[in-house]
Amino acid sequence: MKLKKMIEYYKNGVNRNKVIIINKNCKEYQKEVKDLNIQLIDISYEIANLLEDFSKRKKRNETKEVLEKFLDSFNDEILSLYDVDYLFSPDVGTLNIVAILNYYTRENKIIILFLDVKRIDNKLIFSEEGRPDYCEMDISQNLFVLGWD
Fold first, then answer.
1. DSSP notation for 46-89
2. Residue 94 confidence (pLDDT)
């Protein structure tokens, strides 16, 4: 199914989990996002800049809210996020970006999320077990998880 059809599906009444998850290495979807004139946002760069003056403790406690406020600042109905590695950093609390965005999209935008992670069944895994940035993300509630076949 083409990305455009997936977006239309979400526009026609789906009220939650409007996150399309794509393997960052799939060039065909990156091209399709560009062809659809959807803004690509380097989320690590943007959030790191917004948190620059925060103390370590404040970063861990407020990154989620800063992220949501940042996403709200766009008038676009659809956003595409890439380079999310910073959000897995222990400095910001090793966030489960899929869970956060699933919740965020209940009443908000459609998100296209490019991730460079491993997929095992209904889980996406960032980093290696035992490392401080290790994160497992449940994707069983996400309809469109593309590019790991």
1. HHHHHTTTS-HHHHHHHHHHHHHHHHHT---SEEEEE--GGGGS
2. 87
Residue 53 in any domain: the answer is yes
Residue whose token pair is 């910001």: 92
Task: Summarize pLDDT for 45-82 with one digit per residue, the tens.
Answer: 999 999 999 999 999 999 999 999 999 999 999 999 99
> Does some domain include residue 122?
no
Mean pLDDT over each residue of the chain, to the nearest integer: 94
**CA 6/CA 29 separation, integer angstroms:** 12
Domains of the chain: total: 1
Helix (H) or strand (E) holding 32: helix 27-35
Rounded Cα distance between 57 and 10, Å, is 37
In a domain, 84, yes or no: yes
Q: Are 33 and 80 in contact (CB under 8 A)?
A: yes
Asked if residue 146 belongs to a domain, the reply is: no
- Provide the whole-model pTM: 0.94
What band does 1 get if pLDDT is binned at 50, 70 and 90?
A: low
